[in-house]
């Protein structure tokens, strides 16, 4: 046809399949004699084919335009129109991403169609997990104050984020936590005995006494052992490092495991480079992963105003191409609904989801912290009294007639008793034998390490009195 | 158009041919003076830049592993990766630019053969690459991560040291990332300068929980890499990039293993022990010959192969303290970042090794 320029692909990299489509459309354009190169129809056809092809097989985005005559952007790096007005995009922090909730602060359902209408048994399990965790926190915090364990971190105020999300997952979904997610394990019926064993580092500790308290792990319950360095779980979870979480999700996808990986982290850990790496990898490699951010207002003493200037963590998701939502973390049903839907779609569509659960850290960062040094008691009291996930759920239960003050009194007594029993037992047990200091560095013990182990044994034969051998299993 | 093309062609021929008469012809073509150096200076410059500081010494053809094929080091790596992906359906290879074959061609053909979900590019982020690899390994699948240059491994240092190395230990063996292997091109190459020449194994040499391996040849590379991939502990495999093309020998086509944490005595000797790894093994081999020839000194040459956990028994350190007749001498680069034009002065070449040996003998 006259005036029809020959089409030439400009890119070095052409998506498979699109090449064939291109040829078809090119031929069609030539036949149809469109004066605008490929033509509108051709473009639409390519784009439709391309986008679907992308979702299935290619994570890459690419401009679909190939005509040299068209005055449209040809850049491989973005799919956008030209604009001739100079305008900076204003980050919206005054009116940020809205916060999804199901219950009001008094535990009343706002929009009945959002009520997950969970059975009584399940909602009671939510309540009992959150309150048992709360009771365990109180006792273990006290025990640290008394010098019985070396360190502890409480979960006050964030129980809803743990339990709501855990309940929405399958039991085999892999969990990469940061360190303030004990409620997830609690919901998965991790026994009190093992929580205590890890805090005491006694012979029953699955972690063999190697880590500080609250660094729980449980292979059976698919909860990867906690590590201290922040955000390191994030890339792993595709693991406080999101990278590993992403890697695990990728492997689950390859194995057609129908599993999602969930990676928890705080708004502070989200500042780490590993978080950026994790988000980007999850999106480009199309991993079935839920990034769950507990935005509790503080990273030790650093308030969110000193942690970021954007609209929290949820606003970052779209920057990576990730589906994102912000929820009321103190509303266990909101957390449940969002996680449930994210899980369904992450597995079905092989893409990451970002949930930012807004909440408040009622307790100190840890037993090494006194938060009155950087925030007012009034502020803390507000959250404790006016907007607490446990009381909101209790109001819901009571309004349904599923709970009353009598049961509350009984349960408090019962849960305290259970915790105290486990606590006393854990305290009585010895620590593991000192030889366990040397195992599991590698799968097999290297010769040098065996020599060191033997040298310690010999040393203790002479100098044993200077060591707390009585507390360790023989 | 034609004239420009003609000039361009001449320039290309000039580059290929090196200094000489072409230079004069080009000046005659009307290009600005001073554009190119006079012929003689150009010739010398090209010459000293081209000469390597070592000669690769191939080992004799291995007979016990079946049919062999002539391979250079990067081809030996490709062969190992090919064997791994064929045997282990969970194995995946990822990193920057691995999809098209890699900047050193180590992964050529693998994506076509095994699919894009098994050989794929990642975004440009080393901490992400290693973190992601750890995650894959935690689920039990085999992860082979490529870091484009060992010089760029540092953003991943935290993941390697604080996570990978400690995964098994800190979880009480509930979890581990043993099926992770990290590969990276390593060492000086003549023109790599500060950020394409580094040998960072020392940073990892004191990190319990990982293994660090450096091969000296294609045959060693394939066997050691296969061992790393199959080892149940996270491993870092550094590949001497200067040997990628320069080292050629007969390498078995089928998979085989060379054990980790075992040094190899490649030459017996009675007077002096020389220990090295990677490219430097070829330097000290030459030093051993020089020592025999010029000083009548008999050298034992040891290729350490695994840096951590290393083969103490073969090298025999503390235990032979009383048997040493001279202090141990370390010949290495200077305590500066790796320089560009000064590389010939920087590297521990055979003359420096020979001189250290001579001083030892005369101690």
Automatic annotation (TrEMBL), chain A:
It is an enzyme of class 1 (oxidoreductase). Gene3D superfamilies: 3.40.50.970. CDD domains: TPP_E1_PDC_ADC_BCADC (cd02000). Its cofactor is thiamine diphosphate. The keyword Lipoprotein does not apply. Its EC number is 1.2.4.4. Keywords: Oxidoreductase, Thiamine pyrophosphate, Transit peptide. InterPro entries: Alpha-ketoacid_DH_E1_comp, DH_E1, THDP-binding. The keyword Transit peptide applies. Signal peptide: none annotated. It catalyses: N(6)-[(R)-lipoyl]-L-lysyl-[protein] + 3-methyl-2-oxobutanoate + H(+) = N(6)-[(R)-S(8)-2-methylpropanoyldihydrolipoyl]-L-lysyl-[protein] + CO2. Residues 127-433 form the Dehydrogenase E1 component domain. Together with BCKDHB forms the heterotetrameric E1 subunit of the mitochondrial branched-chain alpha-ketoacid dehydrogenase (BCKD) complex. The BCKD complex catalyzes the multi-step oxidative decarboxylation of alpha-ketoacids derived from the branched-chain amino-acids valine, leucine and isoleucine producing CO2 and acyl-CoA which is subsequently utilized to produce energy. The E1 subunit catalyzes the first step with the decarboxylation of the alpha-ketoacid forming an enzyme-product intermediate. Belongs to the BCKDHA family. Heterotetramer of 2 alpha/BCKDHA and 2 beta chains/BCKDHB that forms the branched-chain alpha-keto acid decarboxylase (E1) component of the BCKD complex. The branched-chain alpha-ketoacid dehydrogenase is a large complex composed of three major building blocks E1, E2 and E3. It is organized around E2, a 24-meric cubic core composed of DBT, to which are associated 6 to 12 copies of E1, and approximately 6 copies of the dehydrogenase E3, a DLD dimer. Interacts with PPM1K. PANTHER family: 2-OXOISOVALERATE DEHYDROGENASE SUBUNIT ALPHA, MITOCHONDRIAL. This is 2-oxoisovalerate dehydrogenase subunit alpha. It comes from Equus przewalskii (Przewalski's horse). The gene is BCKDHA.
Automatic annotation (TrEMBL), chain B:
Gene3D superfamilies: 3.40.50.920, 3.40.50.970. SUPFAM superfamilies: Thiamin diphosphate-binding fold (THDP-binding), TK C-terminal domain-like. It catalyses: N(6)-[(R)-lipoyl]-L-lysyl-[protein] + 3-methyl-2-oxobutanoate + H(+) = N(6)-[(R)-S(8)-2-methylpropanoyldihydrolipoyl]-L-lysyl-[protein] + CO2. It comes from the Eukaryota. It is an enzyme of class 1 (oxidoreductase). Its cofactor is thiamine diphosphate. Keywords: Oxidoreductase. Its EC number is 1.2.4.4. Residues 71-246 form the Transketolase-like pyrimidine-binding domain. This is 3-methyl-2-oxobutanoate dehydrogenase (2-methylpropanoyl-transferring). It comes from Equus przewalskii. The gene is BCKDHB.
């Amino acid at each position: 046809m006259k005036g029809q320029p020959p089409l030439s692909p400009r890119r070095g990299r052409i998506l498979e399949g699109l090449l064939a489509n291109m040829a078809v459309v090119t031929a069609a354009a030539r036949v149809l004699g469109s004066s605008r190169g490929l033509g509108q129809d051709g473009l639409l056809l390519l784009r439709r084919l391309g986008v679907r092809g992308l979702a299935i097989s290619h994570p890459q985005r690419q401009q679909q335009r190939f005509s040299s005559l068209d005055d449209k952007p040809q850049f491989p790096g973005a799919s956008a129109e030209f604009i001739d007005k100079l305008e900076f995009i204003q980050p919206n922090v005054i009116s940020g991403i809205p916060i999804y909730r199901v219950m009001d602060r008094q535990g009343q359902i706002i929009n009945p169609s959002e009520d997950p209408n969970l059975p009584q048994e399940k909602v009671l399990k939510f309540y009992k997990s959150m309150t048992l965790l709360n009771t365990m926190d109180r006792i273990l915090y006290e025990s640290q104050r008394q010098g019985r364990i070396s360190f502890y971190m409480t979960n006050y105020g964030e129980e809803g984020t743990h339990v709501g999300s855990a309940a929405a997952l399958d039991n085999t979904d892999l969990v990469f936590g940061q360190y303030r997610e004990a409620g997830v394990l609690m919901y998965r019926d991790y026994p009190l005995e093992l929580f205590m064993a890890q805090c005491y580092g006694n012979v029953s500790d699955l972690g063999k006494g190697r880590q500080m308290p609250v660094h729980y792990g449980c292979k059976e319950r698919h909860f990867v052992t906690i590590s201290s360095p922040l955000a390191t779980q994030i890339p792993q979870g595709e693991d406080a490092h999101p990278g590993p979480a992403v890697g695990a999700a990728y492997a689950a996808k390859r194995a057609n495991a129908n599993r999602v990986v969930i990676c928890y982290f705080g708004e502070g850990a989200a500042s780490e480079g590993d978080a950026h790496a994790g988000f980007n990898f999850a999106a480009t490699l199309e991993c079935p992963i839920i990034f769950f951010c507990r935005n509790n207002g503080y990273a030790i003493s650093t308030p969110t105003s000193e942690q970021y200037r954007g609209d929290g963590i949820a606003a970052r998701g779209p920057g990576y191409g990730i589906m994102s939502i912000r929820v009321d973390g103190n509303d266990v049903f909101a957390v449940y609904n969002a996680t449930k839907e994210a899980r369904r779609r992450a597995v079905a569509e092989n893409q990451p989801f970002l949930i930012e659960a807004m909440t408040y850290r009622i307790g100190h960062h840890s037993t090494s912290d006194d938060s009155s040094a950087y925030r007012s008691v009034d502020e803390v009291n507000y959250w404790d009294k006016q907007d607490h996930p446990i009381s909101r759920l209790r109001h819901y239960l009571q309004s349904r007639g599923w709970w009353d003050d009598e049961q509350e009194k009984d349960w408090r007594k019962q849960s305290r008793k259970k915790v105290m029993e486990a606590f006393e037992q854990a305290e009585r047990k010895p620590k593991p034998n000192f030889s366990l200091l040397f195992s599991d560095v590698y799968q097999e013990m290297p010769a040098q390490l065996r020599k060191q182990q033997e040298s310690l044994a010999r040393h203790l034969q002479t100098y044993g009195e200077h060591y707390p051998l009585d507390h360790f299993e023989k | 158009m034609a004239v420009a093309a003609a000039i361009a062609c001449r320039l290309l021929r000039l580059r290929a041919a090196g200094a000489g008469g072409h230079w004069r012809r080009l000046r005659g073509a009307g290009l600005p003076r001073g554009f190119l150096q006079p012929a003689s200076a150009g010739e010398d410059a090209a010459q000293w830049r081209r000469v390597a500081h070592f000669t690769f010494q191939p080992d004799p053809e291995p007979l016990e592993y079946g049919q062999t094929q002539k391979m250079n080091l990067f081809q030996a790596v490709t062969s190992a990766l090919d064997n791994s992906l064929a045997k282990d359906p969970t194995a995946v290879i990822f990193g920057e630019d691995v999809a098209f074959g890699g900047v050193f061609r180590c992964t050529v053909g693998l994506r076509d053969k095994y699919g894009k979900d098994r050989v794929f590019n990642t975004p440009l982020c080393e901490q992400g690459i290693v973190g992601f690899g750890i995650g894959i390994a935690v689920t039990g699948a085999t992860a082979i991560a490529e870091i484009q240059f060992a010089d760029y491994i540092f953003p991943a240092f935290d993941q390697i040291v604080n996570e990978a190395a400690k995964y098994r230990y800190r979880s009480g063996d509930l979890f581990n990332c043993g099926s992770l292997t990290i590969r990276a091109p390593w060492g000086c190459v003549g023109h790599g300068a500060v950020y394409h020449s580094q040998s960072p194994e020392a940073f990892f040499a004191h990190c319990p929980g990982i293994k660090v391996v450096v091969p000296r040849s294609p045959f060693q590379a394939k066997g050691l890499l296969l061992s790393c991939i199959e080892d149940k502990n996270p491993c870092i495999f550094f590949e001497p990039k200067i040997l990628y093309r320069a080292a050629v020998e007969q390498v078995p086509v089928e998979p085989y293993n060379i054990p980790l944490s075992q040094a190899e005595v490649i030459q017996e000797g009675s007077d002096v022990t020389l220990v090295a790894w990677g490219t430097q093994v070829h330097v000290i081999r030459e030093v051993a010959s020089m020592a025999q020839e010029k000083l009548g000194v008999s050298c034992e040459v040891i290729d350490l192969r695994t840096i951590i956990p290393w083969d103490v028994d073969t090298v025999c350190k503390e235990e032979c303290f009383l048997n040493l007749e001279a202090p141990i001498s370390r010949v290495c680069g200077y305590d500066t970042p790796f320089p560009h034009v000064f590389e010939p002065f920087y590297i521990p070449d055979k003359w420096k090794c020979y001189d250290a040996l001579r001083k030892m003998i005369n101690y």
